[in-house]
UniProtKB/TrEMBL annotation:
Residues 330-346 form the Post-SET domain. Keywords: Chromatin regulator, Metal-binding, Methyltransferase, Nucleus, Phosphoprotein, Repeat, S-adenosyl-L-methionine, Transcription, Transcription regulation, Transferase, Zinc, Zinc-finger. It comes from Hucho hucho (huchen). The keyword Metal-binding applies. Its main location: nucleus. The keyword Repeat applies. This is [histone H3]-lysine(4) N-methyltransferase. GO terms for cellular component: MLL3/4 complex. Residues 206-322 form the SET domain. It catalyses: L-lysyl(4)-[histone H3] + S-adenosyl-L-methionine = N(6)-methyl-L-lysyl(4)-[histone H3] + S-adenosyl-L-homocysteine + H(+).
Amino acid sequence: MAAFHSANAIFPVGYRASRIYWSTRHGNRRCRYLCSVEENEGRPEFVVRVMEQGYDDLVLTGASPKGVWDKILEPVAERRNETGTLKLFPVYLKGEDLFGFTVTAVTRIVESLPGVEACESYTFRFGRNPLMDLPLAINPTGSARSEPKTCTHVKRSHTLSSTGGSSKSMQTVGSVGVAEAPEEVTPKQFASVPFQYRRMKAEWKSNVYLARSRIQGLGLYAARDIESHTMVIEYIGTLIRNEVANRMEKMYESQNRGIYMFRLDCEHVVDATITGGPARYINHSCAPNCITEAVSLERGVKIVISSCRNIQRGEELCYDYKFDLEDDQHKIPCHCGAVNCRKWMN
């Protein structure tokens, strides 16, 4: 097992995944890439079969996921530069991501495989289910159904050290209304807030980068490994009152603009549609790695996006918008791809 895992992913032999990505032959086309893991002399061999209509299949191999995908990313970047389309950032694209090893559903399944305990350098994201290691219950009568019922109350503890509450953002086009304000975090509750905020303001450009999202449109990605409970970036924009926000929303809709608004409190809204920062591009996820916090400082209340777990470099940042429930006519589909995806954002 030593050769079949890294710090971020496990490479099971026989793994197969079909990916859709940009073509190496045409700058504005996509094609299918069939990724697989095989064994070659006791070491993993990563294989990508390029399947594009009108061309014979091309088989590429490499000793690592990045090694084989670099053979694809370089010609893809050249074709896109020739056609003048949006520039890609291959340096930030990980082979594990392109193979699908870091997809939440895949990670859960792989981490449940027998023998994964031998992966010494791998960092488990979910861990094995503790129920799998428990002995079977003893039933004196020979049947669980004939045993008397027992009532067990389980109290789930709050895993976050801060009091940051998830809030809602109008990041999706077509959403109606402005979200409720996040819970306020004061220096009494979180003594290091001023220091963390100053550090975040000085370092946020090295924390994140903007790129195409697998969820929707553009997304914000971690440019380095980020520890849990770390302030990542501030949601900035123009502070306006509710009445102004309602008028601006109607105007943006008439101009067919994407609306980016965030409620600060019951009277004020931060409008990031025109004068906002990169934080407005953070997508929604039903299994988020970030939360939003309203931080009270001497210069007023600020909206800060913080990590709620360890985030690896190249991982897309996301938080739960927590939109109000709507009827079927106003439902917004969710494309986060999480295992616990609710299918709808509202």
